[in-house]
Specification:
By secondary structure, the chain is α/β, with parallel strands linked by helices. It has a single domain, classed as DHBP synthase, CATH 3.90.870. It has six helices and nine strands; from the N terminus they run αββαβααββαβαβββ. The chain has a nine-stranded mixed beta sheet, with helices on both faces. β1 and β2 form a beta hairpin. It starts with a helix and ends in a 10-residue tail after the last strand. The mean pLDDT is about 95.
Length: about 200
């Protein structure tokens, strides 16, 4: 489906930043192994240093090495139930997840978007995982369409990838932290989650 998949891989392998569609809103991303590219994302967005990036992939198993094992029963259940989908789970990070993308915190958010274009990007890039955030300047609304993402990010990022008709729904993901078997809701979004889920 994507015409420039080799170009996307090349941009990311060379510390680049891309903008792309997900199932919720548009995202900005880079390889988590590139500290230079992560810093670039913070600069592009004017993002506060204490706000971490999250990790997204096309498959949950690509993300599991970035979080501490074994997973709690609650985390495993939520991954089975809601991945792929509009849920970001905040879990204790493993040593593989660099502190420069978690704002020095010991936790990291992980998500598997339900979008074919995003899936194809992740299936074809080095490591299959993106360090990511929304494609907008800090404190501005999230981009919900290609046109908005292009307007926000053209000239700032290395590539804005077309959505090829796989549109974002426009509602941010729900963000939930799992601490032991307790669920803490940080943001109610597209998925209605309660603490007993």
């Amino acid at each position: 489906m994507i015409k420039d998949i080799d170009k996307i891989k090349e941009v990311l392998d060379n510390d680049g930043v891309i903008a792309y569609v997900t199932d919720t809103v548009w995202g900005l991303g880079c390889l988590p192994s590139s500290e230079k590219a992560v810093k670039k994302i913070y600069e592009i967005k004017h993002r506060e240093a204490q706000k971490p990036l999250i990790l997204m992939s096309s498959e949950a198993y690509h993300l599991l090495e970035y979080v501490k094992q074994p997973l709690s029963k609650t985390a495993s259940k939520l991954i089975k139930q809601y991945f792929p989908g509009a849920l970001t789970l905040v879990l204790e990070k493993s040593d593989k997840t660099p502190y420069y993308m978690t704002s020095g915190m010991d936790t990291v958010g992980i998500r598997v978007p339900d979008n074919e274009v995003f899936k194809e990007i992740c299936d074809n890039i080095t490591g299959n995982v993106l360090a990511t955030t929304s494609a907008n300047l800090s404190h501005q609304p999230s981009a919900k369409t290609y046109e908005q993402a292009y307007e926000n990010m053209n000239g700032l990022v290395d590539m804005v990838i077309p959505d090829y008709g796989c549109f974002a729904k426009g509602l941010e993901s729900t963000v939930a932290g799992i601490f032991g078997d307790e669920i803490k809701i940080f943001r109610q979004g597209a998925i209605q989650l309660d603490r007993q889920d």
